[in-house]
Design goal:
By secondary structure, the chain is α+β, with helices and mostly antiparallel strands. It contains nine helices and six strands. Strands 4-3-5-6 form a four-stranded mixed β-sheet.
Length: 266
């Protein structure tokens, strides 16, 4: 018999679109408050300033609308599944950094840029079907799936912006949930198995890592953490050992060491 294939998690397209706009609105309100001195401050993203990070956040939306302005790819179906997207991002960093710096130079007025980007999104996205194909940097995807990746970009970089500025930009609950779940599913995709249960309450529970699979009761290998710590681990914002030392992660069992599997995104 063929191996059992776990059914892919489904995301409500209506809620996904609303979460993208809600998280972008939170970021936009925060960026409006930043002074020139704050915009010039460094971030944890290499040599990016806060201003460059703020510019990059607009690319979560403009990257999508740019694809929708182009003809739909000729591919009969999507070639990149949503759960594989986080694992396909490692080689994109240099090109994205160059694009961000160019945009930061070309668009000095942040408020005008944010207004233009959200206006274009609201103009193009509602009329596009969920099954519409878009040719992303890492492969052809369904629009409904690509929108979930926009949530990941927004949530991850909202955390970067909070860390750099000391602000407390809120996280839309639907956006935080979708980001957490996709990155948890990506771990299960990278290390399929049932010997370790990873819990990120209240949003996600996955089993991963090859080895004996438990069927009832408390599993022998358990990892548990909160959503933001999980997102930071999955994206390389913090290291496994540091999270353990700071008691941000609980790990029990001889197989409950995820250090070799993280980060998931480049």
């Amino acid at each position: 018999m063929p191996p059992y294939q776990k059914r892919a998690r489904r995301y409500d397209p209506v809620k996904t679109r609303a979460a993208v706009l809600a998280q972008f609105a939170h970021v936009r309100e925060a960026v409006r408050t930043l002074t020139p001195e704050q915009l010039a401050q460094p971030t944890r993203l290499g040599d990016w300033t806060v201003r460059e990070l703020a510019v990059h956040l607009t690319m979560a939306l403009s990257g999508l609308t740019r694809h929708l302005e182009l003809p739909e790819p000729a591919a009969a179906k999507a070639g990149l599944t949503l759960v594989r997207w986080p694992l396909a991002t490692a080689d994109r960093a240099a090109g994205i950094a160059d694009d961000t710096r160019t945009l930061a130079v070309d668009r000095p007025d942040l408020e005008a840029l944010y207004e233009e980007v959200v206006g274009r999104f609201e103009e193009l996205v509602p009329g596009a079907g969920d099954e519409r194909l878009v040719a992303t940097r890492v492969g052809v995807m369904r629009l409904a799936d690509f929108l979930v990746t926009r949530i990941v970009e927004l949530v991850v970089h909202t955390d970067d912006l909070n860390e750099a500025t000391g602000l407390d930009i809120p996280y839309d609950r639907q956006a935080l949930a979708a980001c957490t779940r996709l990155l948890a599913d990506a771990l299960a995709e990278k290390a399929p198995g049932g010997s370790v249960e990873v819990r990120v309450p209240p949003f996600a529970v996955v089993q991963c890592v090859p080895g004996p699979k438990h069927t009832r009761g408390t599993p022998p290998n358990v990892v548990e953490t909160d959503p933001l710590t999980w997102i930071r681990l999955a994206t390389g914002r913090t290291e496994w050992a540091r999270a353990l030392d700071e008691a941000k992660v609980g790990a029990s069992g001889e197989r409950a060491d995820l250090a070799a599997l993280l980060p998931l995104m480049g």
